[in-house]
Amino acid sequence: MARLWKNFVNGLWNENPTFRIMIGLCPVLAVTTEAINGIGMGLATTFVLVCSSALVSLLRKVIPEKVRIPAYIVVIATFVTIVDLFMNAYLPDLHQVLGLFIPLIVVNCIVLGRAEAFASKNSVVSSILDGLGMGLGFTWALTVLAAVRELLGSGSIFGWKLAADGATTIGVMSLPPGAFITLGILMALMNMIAARQKRRAS
Amino acid sequence: MNLFLLFLSALLVNNFVLVRFLGICPFMGVSKDVDSAFGMGVATTFVMVVAAAVTWLIEHFILAPLGLPFLQTMAFILVIAALVQLVEMFIHKTSPGLYKAMGIFLPLITTNCAILGLAIMAVQNAYTFIQSVIFALGAGLGFTLALVLMAGIREELRFADIPEPLLGAPIAFICAGLLSLAFSGFAGLI
Fewer C-beta neighbours within 10 Å, C or N terminus of chain B? Predict the structure, then answer.
């Protein structure tokens, strides 16, 4: 039980895909103009991660070693297509905003990385928990980044106006340069927190 | 003229890395020195142009006539993966020198989201065959440009006195932000 819990929390902090391992950064930068988009993208990726981890883990004894990468990609592409069609049907507004980055979940290194590094070697339950932890770690990272950018760029969070009418906002934060700069500063903050944790432990 | 504008748009105004955020992983991973950045850029440009041509043919001669647009993501990623492998074997056979120079960069290109993004974008914008290829060429050269510029900056950064938490990726991202700010100056070009 403790081990399963560890699988789950691993992705939330220690091996957080965005801030610690730094993989799958394209959607992190591209869709985080508003907090709600961050959550949407995060949850879509989480769904694909959990499902593909489960299926890859189930099939890990069936898939021959040599063709495992194409096999994983087919599994992942199937779930991405499901998410794409589902969001197009039920969440058309969000689908419109995330646009290209929904089909691009296929090439998100987090998904293939977890299939190769974890799900292909572990039981179904651990793989699902690992996928869930990684996915939620990705989601919170996206949401924090998007909330900071939305607050500074348009003075609101989750669409709630916080800044006074006519207050000056930093428009560049909603534009591409703001994404790079905010991510850089947040990463530096995470490094500081991790360094402090380490110092306290020793 | 139209084709030239399309090329310029993909190269500078809507630069794949700095404005559209496609291909961030190689942008951060392979921009430590100028030589390998250039190698990666050339290899990617090459695959982009070939992939744009092949995925256009697949979309218009297989997926669209058979009414299978929902297979697009899967078909494209498999084609790109196979293509990268093929290009790798071809270069290995025909010019071992080039193959050696490109080295590990070639297989890495499969997971570059700029390639799949480019293929999907070309379909969404209903480009003709020629337009797709020109678009891919512009995008690839834009990718190379961003990568080489970033590598130049990072070579200089090695000698800078940077606060400890910012070392490595964080400062690189902040530099990329400034680079992106500079590229937004191209917005009025078209």
Answer: N
The rounded distance, in Å, linking the Cα atoms of B106 and B119 is 18
Contacts of A61 by beta carbon, 8 Å cutoff, 6+ apart? none
Q: Where are the domains of chain B?
A: 2-185
Instruction: In whole angstroms, give the CA distance from residue A26 to residue B149.
Output: 19
Whether residue B1 is predicted with pLDDT greater than 70 in this model: the reply is no
Q: What is the DSSP string of A67-120?
A: GHHHHHHHHHHHHHHHHHHHHHHH-HHHHHHHGGGTGGGGG-HHHHHHIIIIIT
Q: Per-residue pLDDT for A171 more than 70?
A: yes
> Given CB atoms, is A172 within the 8 Å cutoff of chain B?
yes
Assign residue A168 a region: left if phi > 0, alpha if psi is -120 to 50, beta otherwise? beta
- Residue-number span of the structural domain to which A31 is assigned: 2-201
Query: Into how many domains does chain A fold?
Result: 1
Give me the mean pLDDT over the A31-60 stretch: 94
Q: Which of A100, A172, A179 sits opposite B121 (nearest CB)?
A: A100
> What is the DSSP secondary structure assignment for residue B126, as one 8-state letter?
T
Q: Are B25 and B176 in contact (CB under 8 A)?
A: no
